[in-house]
Amino acid sequence: xxxxxxxxxxxxxxRAHTATHLLHAELAKIFPNTKQAGSLxxxxxxxxxxxADRLLDQYEVDKINKVINQIIYFAYxxxxxxxxxxxxxxxxxxxxxxxxxxxxxxVVQIVGNIETQDGKEAVKSIELCGGTHxxxxxxxxxFMIVSxxxxxxxxKRIVAITGPKVYERMQEVQWILDVVVSKLGIKTATQxxxxxxxxxxxxxEMAASLESLxxxxxxxxxxxxxxxxDKDFDxxxxxxxxxxxxxxxxxxxxxxxxxxxLIYNDEGNFLLMTKTWSSAKxxxxxxxxxWWGNExxxxxxxxxxxxxxx
Length: 310
Ligand SMILES: [Zn+2]
Fold this sequence. Notes:
alpha+beta; Threonyl-tRNA Synthetase, Chain A, domain 2; Diaminopimelate Epimerase, Chain A, domain 1; 2 domains; five-stranded mixed beta sheet; 8 helices; 27% strand; binds zinc ion
């Protein structure tokens, strides 16, 4: 039987694996005492869990992306050496599973210098690792952090992509952006922020005027609706519209503070208010309605109210 290794897949995993080492080295700059808590390397996809008490902020994410892509463009060789465990530790190699290593170990090194917005920075990734890597950082192609989350209070997880997956992702983002730009009727993505501010302002203004309109409408309905009467109530009002019952409450309180009133809508929401000398709780209980409230006012949602006052 011949063993066939899918070259595409093999390179995709190698790119993600070497990028994992670079990510680990950059995280160690931010969290000097961090430890790898787990890692998954797949085709141009990597997941890296590490010990940290917080997530990265946006500046740190941007910087790691920038630095690792610079390391890629600067084309540093990925050096693989066999040496003794002692020598490797002397080099400063990160070792994760101390007990697992024999006398001879494999050291994977990427060392160099890059220029960032914060000045010159050393790149130093030295790890004990038996896995396969690309020969040169340029072979990674591209690197991008796509998400981070807390998997436990002391463990954070970063997911990143490499190589063609970054291009695919950018293409997808561009496509979404194109749709948004065209739906908003603007010409370029740079106009997006202004347009969104404008749309949100319009939305807030509309919501505010709608609210005052509803309040006027409600007052009108509550004052003029044909109201029934019976021995318990001065007024029984059915609100035909599906209006938020919170608004009804506000209007009713000012309009009917001296009467026994029952207001309900077609969904069975009701409000029962009484004069100070009669108990709203007692009337609601007598009618068999499910309610909450106090002596002067109870509320509830009980479709039985629709049957009671048809
Ligand atoms: Zn490794």
